[in-house]
Design a protein that fits this description.
Layout: H1 2-11, H2 20-47, H3 53-77, H4 82-104, H5 110-129
Length: 132
Amino acid sequence: MISRHLTDDASTDESPALPADSAAAHLEAMAKGINDVDVIVQGLLDRIPPSKPWQRQLRAQLKEADRHIEILRLEISLGRDGVEIHDAARKLKQVLEVTNLQIVGGRADGWTRNALLVAYRSAALVCALLAP
């Protein structure tokens, strides 16, 4: 019985293919997450004026996040392997995490803090969905 159990486990090493509906939902969630992050970052860039030093720093960090969004989209559209795409998503998540942590104790209003938190959580979700 033990030998049968071991042979059954050996035959199930490969991940089962996702059903078509599940795979489509996975891709839709991933695309929606990337789009949500992009919309929030663009909205913050449009809304925050570069008049004060902390605003200029925040804008620079948001531009860095925008650059990583573009890189992630390019990696996906070029059909790179999963590791490279996950690495791009991880870098985007890291940039937003640092930005979020720096803004928490700063002078930003609650709306900006909440928007950054939502962007970070969406980026974390995308990163988890893209994990190999």
